[in-house]
Amino acid sequence: MRRVLLILAAAIIVAGAAFWFLTEPELLDGSALSGLQPGDPARGERFFFAGGCASCHTAPGEGATELQLGGGGALETEFGTFIAPNISPDPENGIGAWSEADFANAMLRGVSPDGEHYYPAFPYTSYARMEPQDVIDLFAFIKTLPPVAERAPDHTLSFPFTLRRGLGLWKRLYMHPEPVIALDANASESVVRGRYLVEGPGHCGECHTPRDFVGGLKYDQWLAGGDAFEGEGRVPNITPGGGIGSWSEGDIAYYLESGFTPDFDSVGGSMVPVQKNMARLPAEDREAIAAYLKAVPAVEEQGNEQ
């Protein structure tokens, strides 16, 4: 019996050590940001709207503008309620005291300045595909915005989702910085640019790709739609096998610019702020997104998606 207990204790220690090692937050290599140009706010503004940062982080309440990133908006999910943080330049309640490395690790690694995993309600699984220079430019733009001196509330989660350390294992399963869709060698520059915008800063797959029971994206059904992350309604299939399969590239680009479909319907629901942000991008970016969406593998409609 003593021998059995010793073996069991040793197994527990080994398993604990393995868990601790596998869940360790991984920071960027020290050379990842070396050789970059100083952050360019003008370029960063482009990624601010491509990423729809204001859609989640605008402070709620009357009078708040899309450039007041005080956070506080709630995202209701089956795992609990996640609250968008203050990412304004306020040094105490926002990210004003962050370094470029802090911001880059948050965006590209999903790790806080304190060395903790962020919850993937913050779509760093997509932002991980961004170029470091674009991340630094985005940070430079955010630093030009007005500080908001209010602290956003904490998340409301139940056990075991309060244990952030386990997210290290989740990241190993679902965080992939390489492109989701492999393109042909002769793919146009527009399609390649569209892939970057959709899979990276635009994080379109975070809403338009179905998830499994632990909230990970089903990459084999990329952009095929499914249940809304908040648990209410359906998100449409935007592959060529979905409802926009009959749309031309011009139709898609015009929809992103104007909010009008080829049938003269208008954008609605949670897509309204997304379209509003897309309208702020240069025309070539919307055209690139359209080209990519026509190039991704078609996934046939499942169920009664609209």
3D architecture notes:
It is a single chain. By secondary structure, the chain is mainly α. It folds into two domains: 37-174, no CATH class; 189-295, no CATH class. Helices cover 38% and strands 5% of the residues. The radius of gyration is 21 Å and the shape is globular. The mean pLDDT is 89.
Q: Percentage of helical residues?
A: 25-40%
Judging from the principal axes of the Cα atoms, what is the shape?
Answer: globular
How large, in whole angstroms, is the Cα Rg? 21 Å
Structural class: mainly alpha
Strand content range: under 5%
Total helix count? 12
Order of helices and strands: HHHEEHHHEHHHEEHHH
Strands in their spatial order, largest beta sheet = 1-2-3
**Annotation, overall tally of beta strands:** 5
Regarding quaternary structure, what we see is single chain
Mean pLDDT: 89
- Report how far apart the termini are: 62 Å
What's the story with the biggest beta sheet? 3 strands, antiparallel
What order do the helices and strands come in, and which of them pair?
Blueprint: H1 2-22, H2 41-50, H3 53-57, E1 74-77, E2 80-83, H4 100-109, H5 124-127, H6 132-142, E3 156-157, H7 167-174, H8 189-199, H9 205-208, E4 226-227, E5 234-235, H10 249-258, H11 271-278, H12 283-295
Helix pairs in contact: 2-6, 4-6, 8-12, 10-11, 10-12
